[in-house]
Design brief:
Elements lengths: L2 H8 L12 H10 L8 H10 L29 H9 L4 E5 L8 E4 L1
Length: 110
């Protein structure tokens, strides 16, 4: 597994996402246009935060991952990968927080 693959997974992304019809597809496609040799956690977080999406639900929205495309790019940066992969395993999450550098990260499960 390459470093870029690991970095994408850590942030809840996968190269194959770009072939789907979701918010994550647009995000992944835009990231894959960025030179891989310049990637780092901080740079990827900044890149994700600058991708504009006008039709995303608000940060406090409740969405069912079995029926809705979750807006992973609006999740806290250091927890989004865990949330993405838990939901991919049919472990439904209700809320998440990465602690913002002051506390523990948390994920609330259904």
């Amino acid at each position: 597994m390459t470093n870029s693959t690991i970095l994408l997974a850590r942030h809840g992304l996968n190269r194959e996402d770009r072939f789907s019809k979701t918010h994550v597809a647009c995000l992944t496609d835009s990231i894959l246009q960025y030179p891989v040799e310049d990637w780092s956690d901080r740079r990827l977080i900044e890149w994700i935060q600058q991708v504009p999406f006008s039709d995303l639900p608000g940060r406090e929205a409740m969405l069912d991952p079995s029926t809705n495309d979750l807006p992973y790019q609006s999740f806290d940066p250091y927890i989004r990968g865990i949330v993405r992969w838990l939901n991919a395993l049919d472990i439904t999450t209700l809320s998440c927080c990465d602690g913002h550098g002051r506390g523990r990260a948390s994920v609330t499960l259904k």
